[in-house]
Design brief:
Blueprint lengths: L16 H9 L2 H9 L5 H9 L6 H14 L2 H8 L16 H10 L8 H18 L12 H11 L4 H25 L3
Length: 187
């Protein structure tokens, strides 16, 4: 997982202990609904909700990473269904408004006015999907469209089984960021 999960406690991650208590005390169905905003894989949602209570945000992020490490390719494909293509905005009708807002925030480095990069990302996404059979997933937070395009081009060189491992690592990073946001109640 990324640096955002290393040594993070509730206070340093901006997580209010009241928010963590709220999450830990949610009924199972409500906790699962909240977790679906972070990740669309049902197995991840069920296992994260079932592992409560969490002592800290770091504990929840650590658990998330362990669960993602054990997900099957089918589970990973289900997680991918909850993410728009890089360079595309999520459809507000798909999923939750909070997840859509998080996705827009994560992809904010893709400049809508940079038509050349957007066109190249669209083409790269198509090539990637033809090669691997699923969308290109990358933790986009803090990256520009050009950086994301460079990463995509590099990943097109991967073998399919290696690429699933990269997807798994990127999903761990995204889930960590989204869990932090969920537990901090921030958009």
């Amino acid at each position: 997982m990324g640096a955002e999960s290393a040594g993070v406690d509730a206070e340093s991650a901006g997580i209010d202990t009241d928010r963590l208590t709220w999450f830990n005390e949610l009924p199972a169905g409500a906790a699962q609904q909240a977790l679906r905003e972070c990740c669309a894989a049902p197995r991840w949602v069920e296992q994260m909700a079932g592992a409560r209570p969490y002592a800290s945000a770091q504990d929840a992020i650590r658990q998330s990473g362990a669960i993602v490490s054990a997900l099957t390719v089918t589970d990973l494909a289900q997680a991918l269904a909850g993410h728009p293509r890089i360079g595309e905005r999520p459809d507000p009708g798909d999923g939750s408004p909070r997840a859509a807002a998080w996705s827009r925030r994560e992809q904010s480095g893709v400049d809508a006015d940079d038509a050349e990069t957007r066109r190249a990302l669209t083409q790269g996404n198509l090539e990637y999907e033809q090669r691997f059979g699923h969308i290109y997933l990358v933790c986009a937070s803090g990256r520009t469209g050009k950086e994301l395009l460079d990463v995509l081009c590099g990943r097109l060189q991967n073998e399919p089984e290696d690429e699933w491992q990269v997807v798994r690592t990127e999903l761990q990073k995204i889930n960590a960021l989204r869990l932090q946001r969920l537990l901090a109640d921030s958009a």
